[in-house]
Structure formats: C-alpha cells, structure tokens
Amino acid sequence: MPSALCSAPLPKKQRREHHVETLRRWVGGMAVFLLAAVAAQAAPPAEVFFKAPDITEATLSPNGRKLAITTARGAKRTGLAVFDLGTGKALRTAQFSDGDVSQVHWVNDNRLIFGVVDLSDGSGRPNGAPGLYAVNPDGSEMRQLVRRMNRPVVSDGSNRHERLLDWNHRLLRVPYPRAGETHEEVLVAEVSLDERHLATPLWLNTRTGRTRPPGVDAPPDTVDWITDGQGELRVALTRRGGRLAALWRGPGRDDWQPLFESGLFDAPFGIHAVDGAGQLYVTQARGKAGETVLSRYDFERHAPEAKPLVVTPGFSYAGQVLDAGSGAALGVRVVTDGETTVWFHPALKALQEEADARMPGRVNHISCRRCGEPDMTALVRSYSDRDPGQLWVYQAQPPAGEKNWRAVGRVRDDIKPSEMAVMEFHRIQARDGRDLPVWVTKAAEAKGALPAVVLVHGGPWVRGNTWGWRPYAQFLASRGFAVIEPEFRGSTGYGQAHFRAGFKQWGQAMQHDVADALRWAQADGIASDKACIAGGSYGGYSALMGLVNDPDLYRCGAAWVAVTDLELLLKGSWWVDDDTSGETRRHRLPEMVGDLQKDAAMITANSPVRQATRIKAPVLLAFGEADRRVPLAHGKRMRDALREAGNEPVWLTYADEGHSFGMVKNRVDLFERMAAFLAQHLQP
C-alpha cells in the first residue's frame, strides 16, 4: 500500500528532539563550510605564488664593489639596477617598454651584458631568443649586439645595427677577469636553425660589436662546447647518426684529441667542467645503482682517476666545480636532497661556517668576488623550503661605518615564511623493491591525514625536485592538501639503474611507482583516502594513466599540456606541427618509450586516448594553443575521446601559450580553477 512508504509521525517530544538534532547537524555542517571558506580566504592569493619574483637575479661585479639586480619594483617591466656598495647609490641601468631584462653578466667592472624577453607574452609566441645587449653600470653606452627574435631593430641613426648578429647566436662564456686586464669580449656561437649543431664560436666585442675567430676550427657535427674560465675551447661534443663523441684540446694546443665515442646511451663518462688550471672533470656511473661520481680525468691513463673526487651515496653527482678563472678549483657545490658546498679554500670554508651559524636550517648559497683575498666580497642567497630567499652581502673590508653583513632584500616580499608549508624527503620501497624517493609538502600545522594531491613531474627524464620553496606544491598545500611528489623510475639524479628502469615503462612500472607513493602516504597517515592526481607534460600523461590503471585510488585528475597519444608522440603527423626532431624519433624515443612496430600492443594499451572508456573520474584538461612540444591535438583527441565515453572534461585552452604558460594571468587562472576542481572532489 502507498501508506507503507510513509513513516509514522513521531511523538511531540521526539519530534522536538529530532528538530533540534537536525538543526545542530545543519549548523555544524554550515560551520565546517564557513570555516573552510574562511581558511580559503585566509590563504595567500594565487598570484603571490606565480607572479615574477621581486628580485630575479643578483650578481656582483668582478671587483666586488657593485651589485647588479633585476627587479620589477616600481615599474611594469623587469629592469636592471646597479648598486654601488661603497656609496649605497642605486642606478636604474636598463629598462625596456617591450621586454624584461634577464641573464645578466658582468664583462668587467664597467660593462654588463644581458638579454631581453617578454614575460607578459605567451610562451608559444616565437620570441624566445633574448638577443644580447651591453651597457655601462650608469646606463650609458647601451649597445645591442644580437637581434631579438621577431623584434625590429630600432636604429639610433648610426650604422651600428649593421653589425648585429642574428638571433640564433647564444652566449657561451663570459671570461673571468685577470688581474691587470680589462676584458671587453664574450664568446658566442651560432646555433643551426634545426638546433642540432653549433658553428665555430666567435669572440664578440661588447663595445664595438666587432667579432673575431677563436683561432681553432670546430670538429664536424659539434653540438656543444665546454670552455675553461677564460673562454678557451677545451671540449667539443659531437653527434652524428646516433653516435656521440667527445674531443679534447689541451692548453697550448690547436689539435683535437678523442676522449671517447659511443652510442647515445652508453657513454663511458660525462663531461662536466674544466678549471682554470686546465684540469678536466668528468662524471662516471659506479656500483649496482649506477650513481654517478665526480672525478678528475687522468690524461696519462686516458680514463677518469680511480679515486673519485665527490661521491654522493643515494644520489648521482649533480653540482658545480667552483672556479675563479685561474688556478685550481676553490670548491664544489653539490646537490643531494638539497644543496651544500664543500670549499677547499680555508677562508671560504670559514665564511660558509659563519653564514650557516648566522642563518641555521637554511641553504646559504655563496658566490664570491676576490675570493679568499683580504678584500673579498660575497653575495649570499639564504633560502629554505618555506622561504624563497633572502639576499645578503658580506664584505671582508666594509666601507667606514658599515658592518660586514648587510641585507639586500627578499626574493619575494609577499611570501610570509610562517604561512608556508614544509617539504620533506623520504625514501620508500616500490612494490618490486626498488628504492623510490618521494617528496611530501604539507602545512606545518597540519595534523593527521589530509586530502592528497599526487603531483607528477614532467620530463620524464629529469629530476623532479630539490629541497626549497616550490610554487606549485606550496600553492596546493596552502589550499589544504598534502602534496605527494614521487621521483618515479625514469627520473634522473638517483643513479643510472633508476633512470634506465623507466625505459619502455610509460603507464607501467613508472605508473606503479606513482600509485605506490600514494599508498605509502596513506598507510603512513600523511594522506587520507581522498586523493586526486595532477601534472603537466609527462606528469599530465601520468595523471590520465593513473585514472586508467588505479580508479580506486583517485577521485579526479588534472592534466595540463599532457601527452595523450603515444602513437602521435612517436610517429608525428603531417597535420600536426611539433618540435620533436627526426633524430629523436629515430634514435631516442623507440628505446625510451617504445617502437611503433615491435611494441604496438604496449603503446595502444598505455595511450590515454585509447583507454578513455576506462576513465570514470572527473577530468580537467588544460592546453596551450601554440604548444609545439605537446601540440593541442593531444588535448583535443583526449577531450573528444572522453566525451564519446560519456565523461565530459573541464576543458581549458590558452591562446599564445606553448608548453609552459608564460603569462602570469594564465598561470593564476589555471591553478585557481584547478584548486576549485580539486576542492569540489576532495573537500579539504
């Protein structure tokens, strides 16, 4: 009977108690909603995380008496300013109405060079080549040396622009200054239009624009050069027909001697640096994990020295040999989970210890001028996972009335470190026992398991993270999420074995690592059972394959500039414009991703566009309309496949953007929309 579907009325007292309980639950629910709204309002706005820094670059003059910085403070564009550390006087040295100053170097104490890029323009526009300009610290004698790509040259009435080098010349080296000498030249090289080879470099005079040859010929098929601190060509790296080679030119010689020849993936060692004494430093894989170490090269044995100079257990060597331009190296900067510096010079070692004592628990990155001398000056960037950085100048002989240490400024004034999340490094075991590095970022005050975002890095053949302030993870953590970032197999920085274990494992063991990182975080009480997966480029591919392979793990997925069609990636198309070279498709992708014929079934099984019917969770897709690395066709095919499967995605495209979103407004728009999308499905 229909009445059986109705509940019997409650007695009056029970009705009153029922109404009170209902009201209590409603008020409680509203309180949670309002608290969440207040928390969202209290979090810093997205623009704080994604806008340009207040101080982008900072570099000392060779004599340590002036400091050049790039900043947009007080202007619409990032310009160049120079501070006299003796008088405190500041000069706005260079400012452009159609571009932003970047890549600043001192040529000598009275001459700087820099490039100009348009940070307000989309990353997909072909204006990426920054050109090259020279200027005096006071802004006088400005001269353009290399054209900017797709930008007209404004004539000043002279014929100086006739000497301009074309836009495809890039800076190779600014020589270190020698006592009693004033350099006016820098070393540049022309990149072939297909970006496969470099022509013989040229010395370029920054005052006259004149060029001269270096006095040595380039070996055929040179793709890169290694110079010493004075700009002398020491190593030529060549590539032809899937083969690599390295050739050496010793001090005082004009001929090239072979160091090695190999296939693309089996070079016996990597070329790292040449110091001012003419010593060659190389990297070499050792042990079962294939972690690379730093060694000096023994020219008598024609092999790396048996005893390495730097070993970093658990990590492949990454860093920098610190050189003053002449003589032996001063130290080595090393990156493991974070950065550290080992100084060989006692004065610099003492300065590092003083900086670390003044600013404990932080990375204190020192760059010096007149290094180790009585009048040494050093620039210190002190940063942490919660602080993008503070700049300090140390002067061993400060001006009268000044202290040795002086604050320069904060890298990002709007960031309050006390409001930022903490970043932790963990090592866990993947399901097959492989060591798996994982980063976790979450609010410092967070207690218990949080809704999680698994953030997968792009590449994929790069290292995802080092310890420090990271805008993507910090933004997501500020919205109430625990951010899990795995260094899945295929990532670099953790040994050749970890890197090679990712070959032909897209969507397979590489994807298992991502899922294993989340399951570990859930078991460890870091992440709750509410999780979504997100990433860009390869990370976007992984986000989609995570929804395919592990539907029980993820409530949603966000993928931007994502590879979605492995066949299109591997083969290309007459109808789709991309920047993947034929050489890459012939020699690299078949071994690293898969062979179109031999691995056809595997490629189909691990292409998100072919597996769209298996994706049941909500999806956000975002693409740059001018992307040539992962063209918009990848996004459109995935969108259409999801629609056909009955799963309408959130679809975002950005005009004039390429593989990275260059305009701040677009980065802000994407992450605000993504945060709303994640909150809808995770309810942090």
Write the layout of secondary structure elements.
Blueprint: H1 12-42, H2 46-50, E1 57-60, E2 66-71, E3 79-84, E4 90-94, E5 100-108, E6 111-117, E7 132-135, E8 143-146, E9 169-173, E10 185-190, E11 202-205, E12 211-212, E13 222-227, E14 233-240, E15 243-248, E16 257-263, E17 270-274, E18 280-286, E19 291-298, E20 303-304, E21 319-322, E22 331-335, E23 339-343, H3 346-358, E24 363-369, E25 377-383, E26 390-395, E27 405-410, E28 421-429, E29 435-443, E30 450-456, H4 471-478, E31 482-486, H5 496-500, H6 509-523, E32 527-536, H7 538-549, E33 556-560, H8 566-571, H9 582-587, H10 589-592, H11 600-605, E34 619-624, H12 632-644, E35 650-654, H13 664-682
Parallel strand pairs: 30-31, 30-32, 32-33, 33-34, 34-35
Antiparallel strand pairs: 1-2, 2-3, 3-4, 5-6, 6-7, 7-8, 9-10, 10-11, 11-12, 13-14, 14-15, 15-16, 17-18, 18-19, 19-20, 21-22, 22-23, 24-25, 25-26, 26-27, 28-29, 29-31
User: Largest beta sheet, briefly?
Assistant: 8 strands, mixed
From the coordinates shown, what is the CATH architecture of the domain at 420-682?
A: 3-Layer(aba) Sandwich
The overall average pLDDT, rounded, is 90
Number of helices: 13
Radius of gyration: 28 Å
Q: Superfamily at the CATH H level of the domain at 420-682? A: Alpha/Beta hydrolase fold, catalytic domain
Strand order of the largest sheet: 28-29-31-30-32-33-34-35
CATH topology of the domain at 420-682: Rossmann fold
- The level-1 CATH class of the domain at 420-682: Alpha Beta
User: What is the general shape?
Assistant: globular
The stretches of 5 or more residues where confidence is low (pLDDT under 50) are: 1-40
Structural class, from secondary structure content? alpha+beta
Beta-strand percentage?
25-35%
Distance between the termini: 44 Å
Let me know the number of strands. 35
**Helix share of residues?**
10-25%
